[in-house]
């Protein structure tokens, strides 16, 4: 109790509270702007932490981290342009809801789900941090390969009845992820003697092209029919009623659990958690027929999952000193600069600091909710801009976002090419989300498969001798075979 009071005293200072608010606000803005993302946001504020005391510096970084994950969902809903890869799944339900004129309600859903998912991950970090860190050490490349295959099943969920087209799109994404240097041998693949392709194709330019550019191209050509006029869309912020929340509490809990589990595994990330949660929601939801048309179940699942990652991703960072992804790598660097030595002894010798981090995360999520609620009227008012001007603004912002990732003009051409390809695919009813899924999961699946084969000396059957991997393989097979079993049982009844 004394340590908790000490932690409260440490964060209840004007400088720490200001750092929380400023960091969260900057994070939301970074997330809203396509192409920036959490890593760039943290890198931007990192120099400011050098001259700050320990707790305010950590609070600033955590605010940017959590705010940027949430902020990407706003443009995903309003403009069908995910601000970050973590929000790609949100666009699949959020934008159709905005097209119905319910952008305010969609932002209400994602803001509430993001906040609750983030608070859930804080509880997980507080109660099970060291235990989860120990469990995550049992994941070898074989388990990561099994998890990657399990995550790939979400392609079936986002293909909207066109499974063959979805699998083709997912294959395209995996092929795109393989362009560049071989992760094991270093040999160049699919570069066609192009120097620019030796570094591979970035995920952000492809997302910007597939979602933002293709959407604008289709609007210009007036090929995508059935859109609600921008002037008919409601602006503001509207929380769902309790009657609408009650049947979705299980979805919220499941998404938060998935995000907390995936976040605790080094090398995964919020985008993976979001797609897994979305797929699981579509598989189990009693309203699965509405998915792709603006179903709140999908928003609750993916937003609670990707924000639950923010807290649990700190588990391996704090308890083991192992950064799970580029975001937590930057966080780890900031902690070391502040004199914090992450590792098992941190939870023993500096428990007051751990409590302070827990409390900061709680306040950050509350502030994030307030910023979302107060800023929603501004964000949704963008929809009232005349469509020709809006299209031009989105194309300009998206181009700047694609360029700003690496400061490379080649990324702009990649985004433009992805936009043309995305418009063609969408016109012929090919889903584009599986391309993103393939690009997100492709590197993990390839690297873990090849490392696993090296560990087992080429014996693929040895993969099934690992209990955790075997369980994931069985779950994956069950998910893939269940529709066939259900169809056969329906035939027997008739």
UniProtKB/TrEMBL annotation:
Keywords: Membrane, Transmembrane, Transmembrane helix. Residues 17-437 form the DUF112 domain. InterPro entries: DUF112_TM. The chain crosses the membrane at residues 20-46, 58-79, 106-129, 141-160, 166-185, 197-218, 257-278, 327-347, 353-376, 388-406, 467-485. PANTHER family: TRICARBOXYLIC TRANSPORT PROTEIN. This is Putative tricarboxylic transport membrane protein.
